[in-house]
UniProtKB/TrEMBL annotation:
Signal peptide location: none
Protein name: NADH-quinone oxidoreductase subunit F
Required cofactor(s): FMN
PROSITE patterns linked to this entry: COMPLEX1_51K_1, COMPLEX1_51K_2
CDD domains assigned: TRX_Fd_FDH_beta
Organism for this UniProt entry: Dokdonella soli
Spans traversing the lipid bilayer: none
Amino acid sequence: MSDALKVYVSRDATALALGADATANAIAAEARARGLAAEIVRTGSRGMFWVEPLVEIATPARRVAYGPVRATDVPALFDAGFATGSAHALKLGAVDEIPFFSKQDRLTFARVGITDPLSVADYVAQGGFRGLAQALSMAPANIVAAVTDSGLRGRGGAAFPTGIKWKTVHDTDAMQKYIVCNADEGDSGTFSDRMLMEGDPLCLIEGMTIAGLAVGATQGYIYLRSEYPHAHRALDAAIANAYAAGYLGADIRNSARRFDLEVRLGAGAYICGEETSLLDSLEGKRGQVRFKPPLPAVKGLFGQPTVINNVISFASVPIILDKGAAFYRDYGIGRSRGTLPIQLAGNLKHTGLVESAFGVTLRELLYDYGGGSYSGRPIRTVQVGGPLGAYLPESQFDTPIDYEAFAAIGAMLGHGGIVAFDDSVDMFEQARYAMEFCAVESCGKCTPCRIGSTRGVEVLDRIRAGIERDKNFALLKDLCETLRFGSLCALGGLTPDPVRSALEHFPEDFAVRA
C-alpha cells in the first residue's frame, strides 16, 4: 500500500473513550467510498487530551494533525482536501510545532504517538533496542554503573536512586533473581504508565530486559493494574512479538543470555502499589505490607533478590544505555536528573501529558501548558503526588518540579500527577476524603493506619459540626502524628499530608457548617 493514504489515529484509552474507534472506522469507510486506498495506523496518544481523537495524515513533507475529529467530521475533512493536509477548521498543523508539545523534552515518550506500538520493525526504525544492543556488549557491573551515573531515581514516587537498588541486587548472591515492574498505577490524576504501556510497550520490555542483564535476573513480571484492559492487550501482544523477533527468551539476539517476561494482573487494591504488598500479591497472597529489613533487593519475590521499579523508571533505561549516562544526566536540576512525565488533570483547559526536564515550575505547567482553569475561575490549589499528596496554594506555584524543592515545602512529587482545583473547592471535604481513602484502602496490618484513619474521619466530622472544636483539633493533630510516625508504610504515613496542608493553607474551610 505504498501509494495509500497513511493515517494515524490514537488507540490510547483516553482517545477510545472519546470516540477514536468510530473516527478511524469513518476514515476507512470514507476513503473506500471515494476510491482511495488508506492505511490506518493505530498509535499511542500524543498526550494532548483536549484534541482527542487526534488524527494525523502523512504528507510528502510532514505529518499534519487534525483534532478533535469526530466520526461526523470525516466527510467534510475529505471534501476540504484532508488527504493532502489542506486547511480545515480542525487543522492543527505539525504536532511538533504546537506550543504545548514543542516545548517538551520527549525522551521516554519520544516514540509514543509516532509508531505502531506493537510493531518491532517500527520500534527498531525509531531507535528501539539500541540500548539493549549496547547492554549486551557490556559487563553487568558496567550497566549498573551507567544507570547509577545517569542520576535516574525511581519515578514511582519514592525517588530512590535506581542504580543503588540495582547494585544491591547485582551484589547479592542467589541462584535466581527477579525483575518486577510495578504497573499498578493507582494515584489520582496519573496515567503516564498506562500511556507508555499502550503507546510504546516495547520500550518497557527493553528496559526490563536490560535490568535483567545488569543484575543477573532471568525472569521478569509486569504487575499490571487490573483496570487497564487496553494496556494488558498491548503488553501481551508486544511481548509475543518481542519473543518472535528474538528480543526475549533463552538466546536474546544470539547472545546466549536469557530473559523471560510475563504480565500478571493486580488485585485491585491501592495498597498493592506498595512494593512489598505487591510482592505478596504476586506470590498469590493477600497484599499486605512486609516489615523491612530485609529489603526486596535482598529478599524479595519468593524470597529471592528482586529489582522492583515502576514503568517510567524501566522505560527511561534504554535511552541511558543508548545515548550514555551523561546525555540523560544533562537534563534536570540538582539531584533531580533527566525528565519526568507530568500528568495534568482536574480543572484545566488543556489536560494531558507533559514530559519535561526537572526544573519547570508548577505555574508554568498550570498556565503555559494547562491553559489555566477549564471553568475560567482562579486556580485555588493543586494536589501533587496522588490522593495522599499535599495541597499547594497559589503562593507555592513557583516551586520547581524537583524532589528536594517539594520536600522543602512539605510536599512530594510522587508519580508526577497534578490535579487542579478552582476556587469553588471545599478543602475540608478534600481533607476528609484523604482520611476516608486511607481507612478504605488500608491493608489493616498496622494499628495506626487501620484505626487512626477511621478515627480521623470521625474527628473531622465533629470539627465540621462544631462539637468541641478546640479539643478535636488537638486530637486531629495527635492522630496525624501517630499516623505519620507509627504507620508501617507510606499509605498511613502520608495520610496526614493533605489534611495538614489543607488546614495550614485554607483554615477558613474548616469553619462550622450550618
